[in-house]
## 1
Amino acid sequence: MLRVVFVFLLLAAGVVLALKGPFYGLLLYVWNAYFRPEDWVWSPYNEIIVSLSISYYVGAYVVIASILSGQRFRFSLHVLLFGLFVFQTFLSARGSEQPEYSWDEWQEYAKSFLITYFIAVLVTDLRRLRYLVLAMSLSLGFEGAKQGWAQMILRPGGMNTNPVPFLGDNNGVAVGMLMLVPLFAALAGTTARKWPRRAYRFLLVGVLYRALSTYSRGGFLAAGALAVAYWLRSKGKAKVLIGILAAAAIVLPVMPDAFWERMGTIRSFKETDEGSALGRLHFWKVAAIMARENPVLGVGFQAYNRSYDAYDPAHGEYGANRSAHSVWFGVLAELGYPGLLLYLAVLILAFRSCHRARKLAGEDPSLKDLQKYATSVETCLVVFVVGGTFLPFQYNEMYFHVVGLSMALAGIAESRRRARPAAGAASRGAPRERPAPSGATP
């Protein structure tokens, strides 16, 4: 009963806070999406929460409140290409080989696409950026870190295959948890207080272990990419390297031989090895066939699995209704060549936005926090690229929120860039104090 009271108190507090304005409504939406309060309580309370349709009403509130408040909307090449990608998903859903299924799925994901844009609109400064990162990280990472530390202490090296509704199976959990690692690192690096900084680092180690304890091979590769990318982009490379080695020294020694044996099958081409390289290559081949037969719109939004059997040249040798096992081949098969090109363009511009924000911050010491957040978001994207290569994670809401963060970073960086010449001009235009004549009283 205490858990039920706790969840409903959090929900009530979020609603009250959301009434302050659309940005706080955005925080409530993110908390609900990542925390999933219905999964924290049991029947009939979970049914009550589901019946509230929180994400739908809060999402609508964010849009309407933003319009009524006179919020300035953002337009840029990044926003344009993202809009075109969303339009392509709409066309693909309407022209799908599985029309009812694809349309239902698209309507569910439409909220994610809309919220991505409003992250770019409403996150206008570093304070708001930090609040949003906090909402994302703590809502999803608290339970993940708790499970990670409990597993490490009570059953070190054991496999944790518990799914997370927001992320999916163990592979999705691994990638999602690893995307939290650089966010917690940014929060730790941008707070001056000792205990919050230690708490964020504690949570960082917990979600890192939670990711590795899934025994996901794609997650393991993504973890290595995370370490390399964060080290390369960090200013104090020696300090960051020490941090990476310290985390590795805590986490890796407790992993048993079974873990390392599973990681060793990443390059396995045995036909009997479930999820082997041979199997993935076959699923990617099927995706290419789908795209060749449906080059403009693909087989339909989220329709790869349902269309798989009709395009499978092996006639069920690898099973029925299989997954694409790849972001890139999944998008190619489901949205066609235009969809994949737009998807890649949005991703490339997200990297570019992070790069520009880091470059601006490097020129202004007062923007060091902006640089840390840009590095963090960029590292999240690296984790997604590597982990998503082996996982159908293409429409996950967390990825699109990170894209929204990259757009917000670009907006913050651009506003600071415009403000600097204006401040300089004001300084040059100010009347200079004339020196007092010789012998005059100062």
## 2
Amino acid sequence: MLYPLKFIPIYKTYVWGGTKLAGLKKIKNGRQISESWELSPISGNISVVANGFLAGNSLQELIEIYMGDLVGESVYEKYGMEFPLLLKFIDAAQPLSVQVHPGDEVALKRHNAYGKEEMWYVIEAESDAEICVGFNQDINRKILQESLHNRNLPDFLNFEKVKCGNVFEIPSGRIHSIGKGILLAEVQTASDITYRIYDWGREYDAKTARQMHVDLALDIIDYSSHRAYKTEYEAIRNSSSDICRNRHFSVKTVDFDDTVIRNYADADSFTVYMCVDGSAVLECNGKSETLIKCETILIPSEIDEVRLIPDQRARLLEISM
């Protein structure tokens, strides 16, 4: 019988990373961690189980053995051996590059891979923290190229002040960048395709320069300015609140200070919990696991019900297909 599965985090270090994740993950020596890949199907970075009798088995091996019992029959029918999501925590001490991701059609043609769409949930933010998402006015390909040549692209970017609990959806084609002083959870499709177009001057320094992908990005960018980029929602205590629902995945928040019972009997999907505040115990099938801030757990599809028991108060992201 399957049980709630924890996986060994895969840590990534980039030039913009901070030390908050290291502290939350109880890693000594103040190690810089930019991203913690909590649940990954990406080749070369496939997650491995950390708990229970399946410890040491990879996510891919689990799907081979348990198929729909793990991911849901409809999910298995659509995606087969490929787990459809990549889940991360991201710690930005400096701004990430301004980037954009292709959709499925372009990604399939260019890379024989799925496209990338993502959602951000802000866990912590310094008082002056900002996220760049989209443009502050309608522009076009020529204006973008000129702004890159003149090094004044930020004049055309839309910046949003952020605080804990803010949610942003990033569809393919929308330019974006996480600003400094932000810790967030990222839910995304199972793709690692990123086109960088601007890197805040780091691209002009031999010590920090990374590959840019402007030519690839130009024909996939949404050049329009949109009225609202931040997702508005109301968190309901001891219940769930929808914060993202698209053709790829669904995300809710569960904010609770009392025991909550979540029923998945009709879901036909796995469920993932990412803890974004506090801590809680998850009980199901006679098993229990503790989940603390910036930890993640996978609930297999065959499990119909989970009891969430907070240590005072907790907030989880609940992710499914």
## 3
Amino acid sequence: MPKYKTARDWIISMNNQNLDVTRVPVIDPNGKPLMPTTPARARRWMQSGKAVGSRNKLGVFYVQLSQEPSGTLLQAIVAGTDRGKCFTGIAFQTKLATIALFHACLPGFYKSKKKTKDRQSVTGKMAKRAELRGTRRGQRIDRSKPFKLRNHRQKRSKNRRKKKLPPSVRSNREMELRILNEMAKLLPILEIRDEACGGNTKKNGFGITPVTVGQEWFRKQALLIAPVVEVDSLDTGKYRDRLGLVKERKDKSKQQAETHANDAIAIAATAFIQYKPFHTVNTHGHEWVGDCAVTPAPFIVLTRPKLFRRKLYQENYSKGGVLKRLGGTITPFKFRSGDYVEVSYKGDMVRGWIGGFTDTAKTKNVSIYDHDWSRIGQFNPKNVRLLQRSSKLCVNR
């Protein structure tokens, strides 16, 4: 390996090489993942009929060969995960290129402009369910009877305690696993490198916090995809600096690679470069060993549609003492909540996700939302065209 005085010199030398800026995943006719190819070669295959292009549920473009490949040799593809409380970055890296970057907005602790708990998060929904459940229990109590004869719920015994994850933590880890599972169908992932969230994860047989317990559960599930390697969170910074990547420290909610995806690249790059000690007769110290090139790659933001479970009615009465229907995914039209659609609006084509509807004698329309679940507008269902059925994901490429 040639010697470089600074990390900047090494980065410039890597960028001067004849490297393609991105890679396109490839699968064989039977659906087995192969090594990614360049966009130019993928276009030639599609033009000559050797391959067909498509997108998966995460919005990643890939090609499927219509004939047997000329070779099946594989190189190392490593997935890196940088986990946060509300956001997670996932990167897929090889020695020569970055394949894809993901910024997952986790549903467990969804942050909004409100200071109170947002009902769109899993924690907010569970809190509201507990509130309504307490109200129903109170309505069952016959207060005319003595206290001991009232219809109180029975005391919970110890056998009702179960070793399970909180719903918010479990939903966050399941979203990360879904990204890995979908990409494992397109890429031959060699291993998954997961950043440790800090602290000892086990103490007398029990986890210290739900976050560390969720981390152990995530790694057990990820082992079904590829071997998992733990990376110390204290080492992420020096690998990120070595690769010349920038980190956003003030606002983690920004949907850009600097918040979490760059750290995920650094975590994945630990499989290709190491900071190793050396000893000679007169000197000793540490030096960088190995190569890894960071190239531009598709950056994809993933969120979940903010849908509610089906309810019989709302909590408050409407005008005339009528309780309106609330929640669910069914509409009286051909669409379902979460479907990806497009509609012409002021001469432009607008794309978004179905999030609600109005069905009255005077008005019939559907509400379309963007990936951040801000309503774009309400449109006539006759003018809306279905693009893709709901995958319970909102993708912004």
